[in-house]
Write a structure and sequence with these properties.
mainly alpha, 56% helix
């Protein structure tokens, strides 16, 4: 039996952690790419959709306000 942490999908879910999204957006982008690769291999996402998903995710990361700002609260 494999440990769930051995799966790329699980290991890269930090891309959905709000704290990581604010503090490590570049790392989260890389994790999202790995998540999408795993989903493509599992036939859950079409490869042609990955670029659009990554662009949308990048825009979302860019709009996250800085922690501690009035916009964040």
């Amino acid at each position: 039996m494999k440990c769930t942490l051995s799966y790329a999908l699980v290991r890269n879910l930090n891309a959905l952690d709000p704290k990581d999204m604010v503090n490590n957006p570049n790392e989260c982008r890389e994790s999202m790419k790995k998540i999408l690769t795993a989903l493509v291999h599992a036939s859950k996402v079409k490869e042609k959709d990955c670029v659009a998903i990554l662009v949308e995710y990048g825009k979302f990361l860019a709009k996250i306000p800085v922690i501690g700002s009035t916009v964040f609260s």
